[in-house]
Each structure stands twice: as C-alpha cells, then as structure tokens.
Amino acid sequence: MDWQKDLSLPYVPQRLAIVSSKTAAGYEDFIHQLQNNKFNYHFDFKLFNSSVQGDSAVHSLVKQLKLIELADEQFDTVVIIRGGGAKTDLGAFDNYEIGKAIAVLSLPVLTGIGHERDQTIADMVAHQSFKTPTAVGAFLVEALFTYDQNISTSFDTIAEEITYLVEEQKRDLRYYTTKTLPSFLTIIRQYTHQLDNKAYHFKNSFRDFVKKETHQLELVEATYKSLPNQLMKQDFMLQQRLATLQSSFTNHLQRGQHQLAITALKVEAKDPEKILEKGYSMTTLNGKLITNQNIEEGDVIKTINQKVIIESIVKKVAKKD
Fold first, then answer.
1. Which of 193, 218, 245, 275 has the most crowded CB, counting CB atoms within 10 A?
2. Residue 284: phi, psi to the nearest 5?
3. Three-class DSSP category at 41
4. In sequence order, which ranges of the chain are alpha helices (DSSP H)?
C-alpha cells in the first residue's frame, strides 16, 4: 500500500507514460489540458493503449504497465486515466492484480479515473490520485509552474545577492583607493628612483664590457690576419717532412726487398728437392727423417732419392765410432 508513496516525483515531470483507451473522452480532455496550458509548457507523452472496462481490461492494463516498466528510463511518471462513468464500470481498477502491478512499478503513478465519490484500489496504492483526468493535467502543469517560479525566485535572489556584493566591493575599493593610493604613489616614486640608479650603473658597466670585448675582438682579428703566413710556413714544413718520409720509406723498402731475396736463395738452397737433385738421398722411419731415433732390426725404412723410393728391412744396426 505504501510502496508508491515512498517514490519521489521529479520536480519537472514532463515525460509521461499514459495508460488509457485512445477513444476515452477523459484521455482527450487530459491531452487538451497539457497541450493548451497558458504557460506554453511542453510535455512528451506516449500512450499505452488499453481497455479500461470489460472482461479484458484487467489483463490489458497489467500488460501495459509491465511494458512501461521495461522502458522506465524513458519516463518521469505514469498516468492512468479514464473518463467518467457508472460505478459498475470501475471494476477493472478495483482489482488486486491492478493494485499489485501499480505498487511494484519503479515509476510514480498518478491516477485520474473520473469518479467523484468512490475510491478504487488503483487510487489507494498510487503515488497520488485525482478525481478526473483534467485534474491530473492541471496538477502536472502546476508542478512545472511551481518549479518555474522557484527558479525565477532563485534567480532574483542570486541577482540581489550579486548586486549587494558588487556594491560592497565598490565601497571597499573606494575606501582602499582613498587610504592606500597616496602611499602607493610614494612607493612607486621610490622604486622609480631605484630603477633609474640601476639603469645608470648598468649603462656604465655595459659600456666597459663592450670596450673590453671590442679589444678582445681586435686581438683575435690580428691573430687571424697573420694566420695565412703561419699556414704557408706549416705547409712548407709538412712538404719537407713528407719528402723525407718518402725517401726513408723507399730506402727501407729496398733494404727489405734485398733481405727477402737473400732469404729466398737460402730457402731455395735448403729445398729437399734441390738437395735430391745433387745425388743425395734421405731415409725415413715411420714417415720421419732418421736422425737420433732408435732403429732396431726388422724395422722398415724408406730411402728416397730424386727418382725412386726404396723400402728396406733392417738386418743389422751398428753404431759409428
């Protein structure tokens, strides 16, 4: 019974989900009330067409309320309206299923079922109930008007506060101007005098600096003017050094070539093939020249001369005196 009462109606309820029969006179009165309000407030509304009396009314009303719940973010409030009629025609709104469907909605529900004396279950569980659809429309327009007036009042209050603050600041400014301007001008004159002194000293210091740097530049210029002669002298010395290096390198190369030729002759003289050409031979044991190896009887040795290789079996080994 109290779930709907705990919901908050938006300050500006402009997006309306309307549950009614599109042919109901009360629906037409409600729309006319919204669209022709004297303040020209705009409302966005969507009709969820439903039977409002008869055997199918309960099922149809519950179905439309469930569809609204699925799109609850699109609306601010739900309005259930019906035109006037006999008390017996209100049975669909005096039903437990309707009351439950209204109570569990996440949006506040306004009812304007169109009866003067009797109150239905739908009215009892709704967020707010009204006697007629026109009364619901008037309430919504009044809600927007109240918000509009509150905003206007707030703007007026803010404007008055701003005006007061501006005047107060003006008074403070005049006061501080009167009290502080003379001393401020004195401070300006003091700082101006100090700046003049610093400018004078800076000017003299800068003149001395320029003279010093000019002298340095003249010395550098003189150095650069003598640079070509120094370069020519250095070039001559380099040419002499290069000629000396070339002569020394040529002599060194000739001596190296002579030594190389001598070494080549020595190597050629010791070439085994050259020695064999002179009639000498060499004897090897196991691929090595026989020098100081121990040779025993039965060893196989090879004797090599210029043209043949002779394999021999040692029968006797005798040491020389």
1. 275
2. -125, 150
3. coil
4. 25-35, 57-70, 96-103, 121-125, 133-269, 272-277
Quick: pLDDT tens for 122-136. Answer: 999 999 999 899 999
Residue 294, token pair as written in the block:
């121990």
Phi, psi of 141 (to 5 degrees): -65, -45
Name beta bridge partners: 110: 79, 128
**CA–CA separation, 319 vs 292, rounded Å?**
11
User: What does the radius of gyration of the chain's CA atoms come to, in whole angstroms?
Assistant: 62
Amino acid at 240: Q
Q: How far apart are CA 9 and CA 17, in angstroms?
A: 14
Q: How far is CA 44 from CA 52, 104, 110, 134, in A?
A: 23, 24, 16, 17
> Phi and psi for 225 in degrees, rounded to 5?
-65, -35
Tokens of 213: 């740097």
Q: Are 20 and 27 in contact (CB under 8 A)?
A: yes
Q: Cα separation of 102 and 100, whole Å?
A: 5
Beta-strand pair 288-289/282-285: antiparallel
pLDDT digits (tens, 9 = 90+) for 241-287: 888 888 888 989 999 999 998 888 888 777 777 777 778 888 888 87
Q: What is the dihedral of CA 137, 139, 143, 149, to 10 degrees?
A: 100
Burial class (CB in 10 A: 0-12, 13-18, 19+), 97: middle
Question: Which candidate, 111, 109, 132, places its Cα nearest to that of 120?
Answer: 111
User: pTM for this one?
Assistant: 0.51
Q: Are 136 and 79 in contact (CB under 8 A)?
A: yes
The answer to whether residues 11 and 147 touch, using CB atoms and an 8 Å cutoff, is yes
Q: How far is CA 19 from CA 87, 219, 264, in A?
A: 20, 103, 123
